[in-house]
Amino acid sequence: MSDYNRRRFLQLTGATVSAATLGAGQVTAQNSDSRFFINLRDVDRSEIPDDVEIVHDLSQADVLVARGDQDRVDGTTVSDLTIDLSADGTGAVRSHDGPSTTGEGEGHNHDGPATNSEYQWDKREQDLANELTDKPGGGKSIHDIATGEGTRVAVVDSGVDDSHPDLAGVVNDDLSENVSEDDYDWRPNGAGNHGTHVAGIIAATNSNDGPAGGVLGTAPETELVSYRMFSGVEGKQGDGYAGWVKAAEAGCDAINYSVGFPAPYVYPDEYPELLQELRIAEQVAEYVRSKGTVIVNSAGNDGLDMTPRSTLSLPTEAEGVFGVSATGPIGYGWGGKHSDNEAKWLTGNRLEEPTTQPAFYTNYGSPVDISAAGGNADLEALDSGIEGAANDLVYSTVQGGYGWKAGTSMAAPQVSGAVALVRSLRPDASVEEVEKLIQDTASMPAGGESYHGAGHLDLEALVKAAR
């Protein structure tokens, strides 16, 4: 296993990472052609010219998403952003293909082909369910206490493939909606499998009866609502906010928003309009929270310290948005410290780095509310194709099968699923109470507040406190 030094990696390649990935790992962004936000707190709606088209009426939050001549609107307006997910990874820093839903588990050198669920270090380290290994250890698990029953989580993303056997019956077809401007439904439309991967982390049911089984989400009995904001590889921030409002009005307990503003749209000195973008995000968040919905957002993948005033990572830094940084192991079931028992892959000195290690790409600093499993990587081993090196990424559902991804995009849905667990135990808990429970029960690993906020997500402590 190659020497892994996170700080050295960021020092040497931070500029490259910053140019490539942020938020959900997006590649590029630009002002949306002729689309812009109108802030109704500064603009009299009656004064808006008739030839300005209202794309999304979010007046509940005093916001309109409009198209037309921005200069003709007298008052505060700011351009909408188009986010381009042109990389096939669609929001992940790293991706690796896995088996199909009908295929055997990938071979390894322990006790036969691994089942799909054995790759789920993110769920197994949380003692989510005894079914996650072919050698269950017994005892009470998280799912003996809560499974998310009676809750609803919105995935505002690239769409969810509900034909996957582990997502069949999970997505509410009636409430799900395409919030982009194309003519198709809420399922993926050319933007890859990012939303499907996120959905599996939250709510996969492990229902695949194939030879390698399936994967299990944090809250397999929650109901998902898919709001597709990406049309092909492009998604507009205003469509994302429309998804937020629709999710809140549909009674969703949480919104998973693994999307963010990409570099260089993080420097308010260079882009002063970001301060008006911040106002828009905060107004929408304020309305959403008033409806009882928690907004969970990926903190970003640029390795940026978000504490200084010289950076502004949106929407993570908006008041009312719950920001999640990413952690992950190095050496999960591969490298020089093998075990012939999958149940021991997470134990002792078999990991080069623990599952709570801050991921090499994660943003950090004061806007982080909590950390969660997003995946990590020994980049030299991964890029060299060393067998098993992808195991340190997060394993979940993709169209037609399973795959690994790493990013704060994968960390956010861990927390969205946790919101569903809390609300299934405390249906009347306020947004503030849910967030406080998650933070108060978090554990504090190495890296401290800068990387973990209030701490690392601890489902066992959380469900005990919520119960």
TrEMBL record:
Q: Where is this region: Disordered?
A: 88-117
Note whether Protein biosynthesis occurs among the keywords: no
Q: Give the matching SUPFAM superfamilies.
A: Subtilisin-like (SSF52743)
- Which PROSITE patterns does the entry link to? SUBTILASE, SUBTILASE_ASP, SUBTILASE_HIS, SUBTILASE_SER, TAT
- Active site residues of this protein: D157, H194, S409
Q: Which residue ranges does the record assign to the Peptidase S8/S53 domain? A: 148-444
Question: Do you know which InterPro entries this protein is assigned to?
Answer: Peptidase_S8/S53_dom, Peptidase_S8/S53_dom_sf, Peptidase_S8_Asp-AS, Peptidase_S8_His-AS, Peptidase_S8_Ser-AS, Peptidase_S8_subtilisin-like, Peptidase_S8_subtilisin-rel, TAT_signal
**Pfam families per the UniProt record, alphabetical:** Peptidase_S8
One GO biological process term: proteolysis
Q: Which Gene3D superfamilies match?
A: Peptidase S8/S53 domain (3.40.50.200)
Any one GO MF term held by the record is: serine-type endopeptidase activity
Alphabetic keyword roster: Hydrolase, Protease, Serine protease
The text of the family note is: Belongs to the peptidase S8 family.
Q: Which NCBIfam families match?
A: TAT_signal_seq
The protein's name in its UniProt record: Tat (Twin-arginine translocation) pathway signal sequence
Species this chain originates from: Halogranum amylolyticum
